Amino acid sequence: MPLPRDHNLRQFLLFAFALILPCFALWTLVAGALAMPVVGLADMILTAWFPSVVEGLVFHGEDVVLMTRFGELDGRPVPPDQSEYRLALAVNPGILSYSLPFYAALHFATPKQHYLTGFVAGVMWLYPLILIGLLSICLKELMVALGALFMEQPGVFVPNDNFIALFYQLNVLIVPTVAPISVWAWQSRDTPLMRGLVSLLPATERAQG
């Protein structure tokens, strides 16, 4: 027998608060491994898209670095033969992949019959969004660091600076929070918890009327 509506909500909130810290703690331990698939795909996309600018997106220890084909001299990009150092840009996939532990806490806090298959499906929905977000970060870093050297590449389509800025803000500030909630809500639409939450809206409107 399903719990009363308010009990379903209280149980969900209790489990969610209990799971959020362990999920994020586990994420901090395996964040690098979780980022490997999207880093590898982003590397292939960026090197194929901007072959004269991007040398690769690689792991450097626990960090991810976007390697360019330019050198660095006094903080400015220069041809590689004019510098001993290669211009590398730090990229942090963690500002995107925190959607995974957030989704995990929501998913496993919701009473349902099948947990594992639904969780795998949800993660598969989130990973492409993390990849798109990582590409948006790389585009922004290249635009800021290289300026016209990146934006005015001959024969290569580069989005304009306004699009890159909006694309970055959308994928970094909004998607990592909204996407896991949306996936969780869709997967939980037939659960007693979600039916109870949805049924609150008409009741509230009737009370106000």
Descriptive report:
Helix content is 67%, strand content 13%. With 209 residues, it is an alpha+beta fold. It has one domain (5-201). Strands 1, 2, 3 and 4 form a four-stranded antiparallel sheet that branches. The longest helix has 45 residues, at 5-49. The chain is elongated, with a radius of gyration of 22 Å. It starts with a helix and ends with a helix. Mean pLDDT is 89; it is low at 203-207.
- Could you tell me the mean pLDDT? 89
The best one-word shape is: elongated
Weakly predicted, low-confidence segments: 203-207
Helix content percent band: 55-70%
Q: What is the ordering of alpha helices and beta strands?
A: HEEEEHHHHHH
Q: Termini distance?
A: 33 Å
Overall tally of domains: 1
Strand runs, count: 4
β content, as a range?
5-15%
What is the count of DSSP helices, taking H or I runs of 4+ residues?
A: 7
Largest sheet at a glance?
4 strands, antiparallel
Q: Quickly give the structural class.
A: alpha+beta
Radius of gyration over C-alpha positions, nearest whole angstrom: 22 Å
Transmembrane segments: 12-36, 87-106, 118-151, 163-186
InterPro entries: XrtH_assoc (IPR049823)
Keywords: Membrane, Transmembrane, Transmembrane helix
Helix/strand layout:
Blueprint: H1 5-49, E1 54-60, E2 63-73, E3 76-78, E4 86-91, H2 94-97, H3 99-109, H4 116-146, H5 148-151, H6 161-187, H7 192-208
Antiparallel strand pairs: 1-2, 2-3, 2-4
